[in-house]
Write a structure and sequence with these properties.
Number of helices: 4
Strand order of the largest sheet: 1-2-3
CATH topology: Enolase-like, domain 1
CATH superfamily: CO dehydrogenase flavoprotein, C-terminal domain
CATH architecture: 2-Layer Sandwich
Structural class: alpha+beta
Radius of gyration: 13 Å
Strand content: 15-25%
Order of helices and strands: EHEEHHH
Largest sheet: 3 strands, antiparallel
Distance between the termini: 18 Å
Shape: globular
Length: 104
Amino acid sequence: MTSSIYLTGEAKAPSNNPIMTQYGLFFIAFEIEADTHRIIDVDCSATLALTRKFIRDLFTDADIMDTGRLTEALTARYHGSSQKALIAAVNNAAKKYRELPVSG
């Protein structure tokens, strides 16, 4: 049985974004299958439920190590005001994951 790993990434959102008012930063959280690097679940500090659902659908079953694919998907499909913050938070989480002793 594979164990999962939970980790977060964070980034600064635009100052005019409700995320900054409510949370101060943009956060994304991942549950990752350690053996395969597959994203099992994801949530973020977006203020709208539809945004969180869209991001979940976009990332579920993707490989956390494939940041190029994740960034391309966000650039092509996510056009919300926090796009840059979301990309930075995903890259931050992926960096943390790569630095874990179990991710190699």
